[in-house]
Amino acid sequence: MLARIGGVAGLFVTQERHVSKINHDLTLTSFLDYRNSLNLSRFSTLFFCVFIDIYIERRGGMGLFANRMSLIDTEFAFEVGSWVRAIEAGGTRVVKLNIGEPDFNIPEFTKAELKKQIDANNTHYCDPKGVLSFRKAIAKDLGDLRGIKINPEQVVVFPGAKTPISLSAHAYADPGDEIVYPTPGYATYESISKYNGCKPVQLHLKEEKKFSFTPKDLEKLITAKTKLIFFNFPSNPTGASLSKDQMEEIAEIILKKAPPNVRVFSDEIYEHIVFDGTKHVSIASMKGMQAKSIIVSGHSKSYAWTGGRIGYAAFPTVEEANMFKILNINYFSCGCPYNQEAARVTLESPEREAILDRMVQSFKERRDVTVEGLNKISGVSCLKPPATFYVYPNIAGICKNIGAVDFYESLPQEKRGRTSPSTLFQRFLLFRHHTATLDRISFGMIGAEGEHYLRLSVATAMEDLKEGIRRIAVAAEDKKGFQEFVAKGEYLYI
Ligand SMILES: Cc1ncc(COP(=O)(O)O)c(C=O)c1O
């Protein structure tokens, strides 16, 4: 019992208020909320723990899963995918604007190398840090674009760019440490910060600042407990990119204000998908920042290889890279060697630039049509993003006109914690108008209140994009359909 009290008490430092959506009658999360609402001191909390422990004992002991499992979130992009499949299995075609992957296939020369590697039986365990030939190619590729020198021994290969996100939280931050991350931002940053028992600290990306932030915004968030800062430019979901001047000012704040051991996790997975002369700028290229930055990229987006699970990171030191090698060994032994060789060939191919250009040009055309179409819909305003294949329209007008804001505000607090006006419209759009998008809270729950956005992927056929925009316009006017949908009560909450 004492061990359990200790464990529960240890987790209090997270002060997490936004995790009550997994609602058992007495979970750690609702308990944390309750404890927060009582504003108990740590001392009183310990007594409270004893009381709770007796209660749990009387109910027949602890649940199946460890307490921390109630702190992890899902990625809604995958959840929406399964709803889409279920709707389509019933014979209705869905316009899919939800998918975060290019609608291209991997280059022919990548396929040829894959086949060659398999025929050569390169199908066994390999270096857990990543195949050396591939790490050399990555070090050159990342270094050349950023104007820095990277030693292949600083590079580690992972199954996708997502893996180092979670592993970094484990490797650098203890429970109670603070992790700064963008919101709206890739959902894993918030989920993994909470799951790790850290304090999630939101760096708000505001539309009025073109979804960037000022050095002052960041400065206010940095404390002596800041261990990790997640950056993601070009950004999912907003498509924003930062200029060199902005990066320089931000680097200056980090160097001045952050603790010496802080690490900036710079998720640059969209590094090549930039439009209109935008140049990708990495925080690691700023003076003094390579020594603090983890540069992350991979082949899921630039080379349309989401299924290949090719991600990589260049760490500030070889010592850190070796620590992640040990994590790899513990979690999955090593990556797939034949994929790594084919990924190396992709990086080294003289055809690569032309392939990237073709893909980026095609995204740009589709972005232009989508943004123009969305801005014609009453209640929508959409910035033209300089990068990525996402657009992020503000749908505050639709949420108000259709009654989503009023319905949301009429809900009890517990239910409001599990939905939002943009969620209600996104679900209505999917289940009644058969168009799949993602809502604001798919990119961070905490601090999203009052923000009404959808994320649309333009990596889909032009005809589908036009049809999707037409359906959004129809749904935006369908007040009666919306009332019927919410009255039914299905799919409204996470
Ligand atoms: C910002 C960001 N980081 C990481 C990932 C994960 O990439 P991967 O599929 O390589 O794991 C994604 C995927 O959508 C992303 O948008």
CATH class group of the largest domain: Alpha Beta
Number of domains: 3
User: How many alpha or pi helices?
Assistant: 19
From the spread of the alpha carbons, the general shape counts as globular
Strand tally? 12
Output the CATH topology of the largest domain: Aspartate Aminotransferase, domain 2
Mean pLDDT: 91
Instruction: Please give the largest β-sheet.
Output: 7 strands, mixed
Structural class: alpha/beta
β-sheet strand percentage: 5-15%
In the predicted model, the low-confidence regions spanning at least 5 consecutive residues are 5-38
The CATH superfamily of the largest domain is Type I PLP-dependent aspartate aminotransferase-like (Major domain)
Neighbour order of strands in the largest sheet: 2-8-7-6-5-3-4
Radius of gyration: 23 Å
